[in-house]
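Final report, Chapter 2: Outcomes

The project's central promise was a pipeline that accepts a single protein chain and returns its three-dimensional structure in a standardized token representation, suitable for archiving and comparison. That pipeline is now operational. To close this chapter, we reproduce one record exactly as it appears in the project archive, with the input sequence first and the structure output second.
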Amino acid sequence: MTLADRLRAALAVVHTGDLLPGDVAELALRGADTLTAAAVLVAVTDRAEPGIILTQRTESLRAHPGQVAFPGGRLDPGETVLQAALREAEEEIALPPATVDLVGAVDRYRTATGFEITPVIGVVPPDLPLVPSEAEVASVFEVPLAYLLDPANHRAASAMWRGAERHFIEIPWDGRRIWGATAAMLVNLSRRLRWA
């Protein structure tokens, strides 16, 4: 069974646990009709010990500078989440869409900053020559899938934002801090994926 088939089978199981909903209080104030649709590519490398490809955003970006993220962004008019995730990954890290074995979309995540993000899982060959877009991406790196999905590596944290204390999950990795929506989507994925 291929890695993509294993992921499809694992994600097909009905989920019964709690998923992280995003910032519910902030979303209630904002209203669901004002959310901007976005998609990210959760690119899983097809190797004996699979990994997930992540990016470190440049410090010059207006939104979320320096943060760790999946390749992704807003949907263009008429675009599906699958098309948007592949397009953004190609624009941000030069990942050729033809190399992605799409597994499918998983649970959407709503952010307090007004986005409804759909993670799209795809399996990619290992060691692709990825090239970060200078304007958006400072670096591209890979983290072992098992490490990201292990609840022992998910740490509760909090910070003040817009006058209120916000609680979130962070995942430390090799001197980097994976947190916010990226960490929340990984935690949700860890609660969906159960390997045999």
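Archive annotation: Confidence is low (pLDDT under 50) at residues 23-30.
This record, like all others produced under the grant, will remain available to the consortium after the project formally closes.
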